Amino acid sequence: xxxxxxxxxxxxxxxxxxxxxxxxxxxxxxxxxxxxxxxxxxxxxxxxxxxxxxxxxxxxxxxxxxxxxxxxxxxxxxxxxxxxxxxxxxxxxxxxxxxxxxxxxxxxxxxxxxxxxxxxxxxxxxxxxxxxxxxxxxxxxxxxxxxxxxxxxxxxxxxxxxxxxxxxxxxxxxxxxxxxxx
Length: 182
Fold this sequence. Notes:
With 182 residues, this protein is an alpha/beta fold. It is built from five helices and seven strands, in the order αβααββαβββαβ. Strands 5-4-6-2-3-1-7 form a seven-stranded mixed sheet, covered by helices on one side. The longest helix has 19 residues. It is extended and about 55 Å long. It starts with a helix and ends with a strand.
C-alpha cells in the first residue's frame, strides 16, 4: 500500500532528448556509391502502397481548401510521422555538426545547441536553409520543413569565415576529439 501511494503521489518524469552531438568531416567518398539494379525494382506491395498514397493525395487535392488548411495538414503529417529530426549544420570550415531534435522544437533550440558546441558561444552566425536565411526563432522545425532531416549552412557574421580559423579553435575540445570522417 505504501508503494502505491508513493507511485501515485510522485511527479511524472519528462524524458530528456539526448542531442547526441557529433562532428563529421566529409571525405571524397561521400558521393561515391553504387546501388545494385535490384534496389530500384519495386515489389507488388510497394506498388500497391504507392498507388494508395497517390489516390489519397489526389482526393485530398481535389477538395477546395485554403493555403492555411493545406499547411496545417502538412504540419500535422510531419508531426505524426516523424518523432525526431536529424539536423546537420555545415560550417564554413567544411565540418558538419549533427544533432537530434523533435519536430516541434523551435529554431531557437537549434541555435542554443550550436552555441553550446562552440568554444566561443557568443560568436555570431546566420543559418541558411534552402537558400533562405532563418530569422524567425519562434518557428518550429516541422513548420520550416526540416522533418525528418535537413542540412543547414552556417556562415559567420562579420565576414570572419574560415580564413585563419582551424576547426580546433571553433569547437569545444570534448566534441572536437570525437571528430569522425564520413
